[in-house]
Amino acid sequence: MLQNWFRQGTPWIWLNAGAVALSLLLVAGLLAFILMHSLGVFWPTDLPGHSGSKLWLYLQNWWLFLSGSSAEGGIFPAILGTVLMVLLMAVLVTPLGVLAAVYLHEYAKDGPVLRLIRIAVHNLAGVPSIVFGVFGLGFFVYFLGGSIDNLFYRDSLPTPTFGTPGLIWVSLTLALLTLPVVIVATEQGLAGIPKNLRLGCFALGATKAEVIWKIVLPQASPAMVTALMLAIARAAGEVAPLIFVGVVKSVPALPLSSEFPYLQLQQKITSLGMHIYDSGIQSPAAQDTEPLVFASALVLITLIFMLNLAAYRLRKRLNLRYGNRSVVE
Amino acid sequence: MKTEVTAKLEVQDLSLRFADKTVLQHISMRIPEHKITAFIGPSGCGKSSLLRSFNRMNELLEDTSTDGRVLLDGADIYQAGVEVAELRRRVGIVFQKPNPFPHSVYENVAFGLRLQGIKQPRKLDELVESALKKAALWDEVRDRLHHSAVNLSGGQQQRLVIARAIAIEPEVLLLDEPASALDPISTLKIEELMYDLKQHYTLVIVTHNMQQAARVSDYTAFLNMGQLVEFDETNKMFTDPSQRATEDYITGRFG
Ligand SMILES: Nc1ncnc2c1ncn2[C@@H]1O[C@H](COP(=O)(O)OP(=O)(O)OP(=O)(O)O)[C@@H](O)[C@H]1O
Ligand SMILES: [Mg+2]
Fold it and tell me: What is any one of the record's Gene Ontology cellular component terms (chain B) (predicted)?
């Protein structure tokens, strides 16, 4: 009886189901915890007279929190900073990672050098993020930024323009941090393309470049979006390394401008992660700000969720477009 | 072989290795122009590999090395400096396993045409339709031209990849078991297509079907274990082969 039970694989199925249940429970627990602590924050306590508009007031409070400046106790600069640094990172890391992956997978000759590069890329993924922060300060801010100042902003020296922490260095550091993720995931996508498709393309008189452009990259584009989703999720929550390169507690002005490129790339920013860290631990009145910490955490999670949702929809469209059946049907 | 026919392809002492396994050994033959040449032989003897060496597809597979020469219109295709993409446009190949692109039926056929720089929609429509008609597929797909080609049946896919290959009008067409998944009627249509095509093009086909080889080909080559055993006019091969092995294989007494 018991032997039969084992042979049917029942314990195995129970183990699997148990693992799934436990993971679900942990994730759900985390979400519930944050929701519990954050949703009630803006519920008006007492409001003699007009109790009917409590909900309205509640929503208004949320809106003030989301859209207000730091001085007003709002987190709009942090939301904007997070979105900007992540999007700019995506713009930087995608072409770099995809090009590197295409080179490694399609052009580089298999051999000890390639293997060494692969190992290096994989190891880069394991480097603690704080190290990237130190590197970003030394290389990007002081070296790159300093050089830019010497070349183009001589007049305003010794006050640095780019040679000081700022948005562009934050995004570059994040791009470097997430580069291995993008390279590895894209390479996996490239490896998954059936050999037959490439051969069929070559057989019609395509050059290698044409095969890559017309078959390989379109087929690998869903994998690239997946890579980007991973990168964004990783980057949006980083705090520690970014303190070195341009993320601060609060900023006097938003990193926007009315002229092209509509961004103040050299300006410091603040981010949700920083805001959570700062108001949760650093603030002298941590007791009072604690509920707000949970509200900010909820906003950060929602933001990452929305970015991922956008990427997911993009991937679905790409899959449809390039006829990946498993997703279409 | 009679000498008055001109050779479109001339194979000279060709050998091919996969890693450390020799797959083709010292093959020499002349593939005549505007004729159909059939390759027959037991599974694994190297028919597909020989076909692939006519437009340098083998070098896209892992760890292969080729020795010897293959002349196309008298010029060695293995020489340094040969434009391989242009060579493959002139010498088209249809693989043993159909490999439609995961695009629409239309885009599959238009693919090679677009590579040639043909962009005008009307021209493309025309060429796509004519290629599909030649491959005996038009009637079945005319209503689903813009549906995914991956959903076609195996036999339809086989004709689609033939249509894709003939759309760019190669001078030489290499067909690796082009009718292996087809019903008798489609097979007949493909054989008619081959007959039409040979007026202008040179065809080389691989087949396991002796009747088909006898029916459609002008010349037949029998390969065994990477060697060319016999190569002659099909009539001669099927009525009076000079090698014992050929006779045994054709009559089914092989092995
Ligand atoms: N990509 C490859 N890597 C290694 N060996 C290969 C490869 N392709 C073919 N071979 C080997 O080369 C030999 C010839 O194969 P080929 O496909 O040319 O035979 P074939 O005559 O076409 O057989 P079939 O009638 O079954 O299609 C076989 O022994 C096969 O195992
Ligand atoms: Mg074969």
Answer: membrane
Residues 6 or more apart in contact with residue A301 via CB below 8 angstroms: A31, A34
Locate the domains of chain B by residue range: 7-98+154-243
B35 alpha carbon – ligand 1 mean position (Å): 25
Question: For ligand 1, atom 4, which residue shows the shortest CA distance?
Answer: B18
Per-residue pLDDT of chain B (255 residues; tens, 9 = 90+): 445 678 899 999 999 999 989 999 999 999 999 999 999 999 999 999 999 999 999 999 988 999 999 999 999 999 999 999 999 999 999 998 999 999 999 999 999 999 999 999 999 999 999 999 999 899 999 999 999 998 898 889 999 999 999 999 999 999 999 888 888 888 888 898 899 888 888 999 999 999 999 999 999 999 999 999 999 999 999 999 999 999 999 888 765
Check if B103 contacts A (Cβ < 8 Å).
Answer: yes
Per the structure, the complete domain to which residue A146 belongs is given by 80-324
Q: How many CB atoms lie within 10 A of CB A254?
A: 17
The CATH code of the domain at B7-98+154-243 is 3.40.50.300
Q: Which residues of B touch A197 (CB under 8 A)?
A: 99, 101-102
- State the Cα torsion B54-B56-B59-B61 to the nearest 10°: -70
A319 touches chain B (CB under 8 A): no
pTM, to two decimals: 0.82
In a 13 Å sphere around the CA of B98, the CA atoms on its Cβ side amount to 24
* CATH number of the structural domain spanning residue A246: 1.10.3720.10
